[in-house]
Write a structure and sequence with these properties.
With 135 residues, this protein is an all-alpha fold. It is 61% helix and 0% strand. Helix 1 packs antiparallel against helix 4 and helix 3 packs antiparallel against helix 4.
Amino acid sequence: MLQFAGIVFLGVTGPGLPKRPVAALLVWGGVALGFWALWTMRKNRFHIIPEVSLYAHLVTTGPYRIVRNPMYLAVLITTLGWVVETPTPLRALVWVGIVVTLAVKLLYEERLLRERFPEYGQYKQKTRRLIPGVW
């Protein structure tokens, strides 16, 4: 719930469509990554709350080849673009709060995926969690 509050706050306290080139690149890049991740995940039935349905399968194609949590990365990139467009200490703090919230959420979600999919360990060795080549 905190992530959504942060996203809404950043969305309504600044322009949704940035004019600064770097901010626009971040926002549109994040949106594109998010759509790509959703398109790839479509057969798996996307859930906002971390849960693994009985009918789910492990998705390792599309952006999931590069990072294990591309939807979270898309949210962070898009919201960072909003902060870059209209930077204030409060907006930066809210963005950091989104980062922390999503980091906790993805750690929990990864535990669920490890428990559900035996092949998750091998997939985890090939891809980073959130930032390609870093974490």
